[in-house]
Specification:
Blueprint (H helix, E strand, L loop, with lengths): L14 E5 L5 E3 L2 E3 L4 E6 L4 E4 L2 E5 L15 E4 L5 E4 L2 E5 L2
Parallel strand pairs: 1-4, 2-5, 3-6, 4-7, 5-8, 6-9
């Protein structure tokens, strides 16, 4: 997944993948050079991210282009465990 864009100038967020579910498998996904978070998981749980990479994601437009609100893998308020196996996240919001 490459080139996910954000065009809103104030506080906002964009995601390559936004997950609300349970018992999902995210496998061999590369998310890079985007304007937002690679994978955001909210609620749900018992999910597996296997061999997924997130890198060089930077919010160039929102928040005055400071790169904030850009994470590799954002697991917020997950109801159950989320397992990351052989995943990398680096150079976010540079």
């Amino acid at each position: 997944m490459i080139g996910i864009q954000v065009t809103i100038l104030n506080h906002t967020e964009s995601n390559c993948i936004y997950s609300l579910g349970r018992n999902n498998l995210f496998e061999q996904i590369s998310m890079h050079d985007n304007n937002g978070t690679a994978l955001r998981h909210y609620r749900g749980g018992n999910n597996l991210c296997l061999n997924c990479d997130a890198y060089r994601n930077h919010a160039k437009v929102s928040e005055d282009g400071l790169g904030s609100n850009t994470d590799g893998f954002d697991i917020i308020r997950a109801d159950e465990s989320v397992l990351f196996e052989n995943c990398w996240a680096f150079i976010m919001g540079f």
